[in-house]
Design brief:
Layout: H1 20-29, H2 31-41, H3 48-60, H4 89-105, E1 130-134, H5 139-149, H6 153-163, H7 169-178, H8 184-191, E2 211-215, H9 218-242, H10 263-268, H11 281-284, H12 303-314, E3 321-324, E4 338-345, E5 348-354, E6 358-365, E7 373-378, E8 389-395, E9 398-403, E10 407-414, E11 423-424, E12 436-437, E13 449-455, E14 460-464, E15 472-476, E16 483-484, E17 505-517, E18 524-534, E19 541-547, E20 554-560, E21 573-579, E22 585-591, E23 595-600, E24 605-607, E25 610-614, E26 623-627, E27 632-634
Parallel strand pairs: 3-7, 15-17
Antiparallel strand pairs: 1-2, 4-5, 5-6, 6-7, 8-9, 9-12, 10-11, 10-13, 13-14, 14-15, 15-16, 17-18, 18-19, 19-20, 21-22, 22-25, 23-24, 23-26, 26-27
Amino acid sequence: MQSQPQSRNSASANAPVVDVEHAEAALVEHYPRLVRIAYLVLPPSLGRNRRVLTAHALAQRALPRGRKSGDEVVVPTQRGTGERRDGDPGYAYVRLRVVRTALDAGLPLRRKAWPRRAQLPSLLPQVWGLRLFPRSGGSDELALDQRLSALSGAARAAYVLRGLERLDDSDVLDVLEAAGCADPGDALAEADEVEAAYGLLESPEFDPCSLHARPTDLMRRRQHMKAAGVAAVATLVCGALLGLPGDSWGPDGAAAPPYAQNPAGQAALDPGKLTTASASAWKRSARTDFSTWPARGDLVGDRALLRRALAVWARPGESVQVSATPGTAAGAPPGPAQLLFAGDVDETHVVLLYDGLRIVRYAEPKEGTSGAALDFARVDGATSGEANAVVVSRADGNVRYLTAPWVGTATVADLLKPAAKDVPLHRAADGVTDPFASPATASGCTSWNALRLRDESGTIRMSTDLGELVPAHLTAGRPGAPREASPAAWAKSACSLASVRSHGVRSVNSWAYARQTLPEANGTAAWVCTRADTWRGGGSRILAQFQTTGPVGAVAAKAEDSPACGGRDPHVLAGVLWKSRAGSWYLLGAGSRDVTSVTASGGERVSGHVLAVPTKRSARARLSGELADGRKVSTLR
C-alpha cells in the first residue's frame, strides 16, 4: 500500500503500523458507528438503498490487505467522545479507510480514467427482492439531510468527524488530509455553513444498521422467478443423477435425511401437546413469570388455529411478516410450548405462546391467512415487573395488552402530565385491555402514555410500549435498589425513551443523582441518569440529563454498553455549558454523591460532587472526578 502524504502537523511521521488482528477487533467492536460514518459521508444522490449497501461494503473492506497495514495512521486526540475507541490506532485506521473510500465513492466517473473500486456498485453485501432504508426521522433530520446533500463530500466528512466523532478542527484537518482531501481547510469552512445540529447525527434517520424493508418491482421479479424456476428444476435433476450414494460420508455426516421426523420437532407441531397452567397456578407458585399464566381467550380450543400457528412458527412462509427483538432467535420451538392466549382481537385471530425463553405472537386475519404475522421477543428470567403484560394488537397508533392473571386494575398515565389523574383502562374477562394511544410510533413527543398495573398486594408497576411484544418496565432510584416509578419521576425524562425504541429493552431506570444551585440565583437544576438495560445483556444505553424548569431535560452525555449508572458501577459524572439569564457562560458539572471532588481540564477543582465555574461559550472543557477511596471517575461518554 502507498503511504499517505505528510499531515499538516507531521503527525504521520510517528504513525503506528496497525496489524490485521488489531484492525479487525476495532472494526467488529465499532462496526455500527463506522457504517453510520460511511452512510453520512456518501452522497445522498446514490439513493437510500444503494447508500445503505455501499456504507456496509465500505466498512467491511476497511481491513488491511496483508498482515501489516503499511498505512501511516493519524490518531487524533478525541477530546469529545472518551469511549474505548479514543487513541486506538486500530479504530483510527479503519475510520480513515472508511472516510477515504466514502470520499472516493462520491467522485464522478470519468471516461478516460479507470473507476476506483468504491465508485462501483458493491458485490457484497447484496439483498435481492427488497429495498432497504433507515427509519424515517422528523423534520429536523430531513432538513439536516438536505443541507448535507448540498455540501461536497469532503465538507460532509468534516461535519461528521466534528459532530459525530467529536474531533476538534485540527484533528479533522489531519484526518481529511490523510484521507486524500485536496483542500481540508476549504472543506472545514464549507462545513461551517451548516448549522451545528450534531445531536441529530445519532438519529435513527442516519442509522444504516436499523432498517426498514420494502419489495422491489414485483411484476418484473415474477417474470424472473419463472425463468429461474425452470433452471432450478433442471439443476436438481442433474444433481440427483450425479449425487448417487457411494461409500463415503454424506455432507450431513451421520444425520438422518431431511425428511426424517424428529420426535421433539413433531411434538412441537402438535396442538394436543401444548402445555397450559391452571387458573390458580400463579397463586401457589414461587415464580411470577410467564410460566404461571393460564391459557385464556375464546379460541383456546380451536385446534386448527393452533396447528396453523405452530406450523408457521416452525416454517414461516414467504408471505409471513416475521419480526424479532434484537438478540432473539426466530427459530422453531425446541419442543411443546405453553399456550398463553388464543382469541379474537379486533379483526384478527391472535395466538400467544411461550417456550421458556421467548414469547411468540402469531396473528392472522379472520378472513384468510394472507396477512399472517409472527413476532418473537426474548423474556428469559422475567420477573413480576416484566411479566405483567404482552401486546396482543397494534392498530391505528393504538395498542392492546393481555395482562397477567395477578393484575387487579389497570390505568393509563401520561408521563408528560404527572399532575393529571390516571385514566382507568377497561379489561375484558380474559384480561385483554381496551386500546389506547401508544408512544411507540408517535412522531413527536407531546404526550407519552405508560401502562400502570396494580396487583392484588397493592403494588403498582409502570411500563411503556417501545414497539416490542413486552413493554419496558420503568423504575426510579439509585442503581442496585430501584423502586417502582411514579409518573412524576419520569415527567422530564419520558421523551428520551424514544431513543431506545425497538432496541430489545427490558427495563429503564431513572436516577436523580444530584441537585445543583445555579449561579447568579438562577434557581436549581437536577441531574438525572437514565439507564436502559436489554434482555440480551449487551447494548445498554445511558443518558445523563440536565433538567431545569423546562418541560424536558437536555442530554448532557450519553454512553452505550457501559456499566455506569448500573448496579455494577453506581457512579456517574457529566457536565454542560450553561448560559445564565444575564448572558454569562458557566461550566457546570455534577457527579453522584460518592464523588468527593470534581476537576475541570482548565485546572479548576472543587470539593464535593458539583462544580460551577465561569467560562467562555467556545470552551471545550473536560471533567474528572474522584471517589473517597481514590478511584477516578470520568464523564459519561
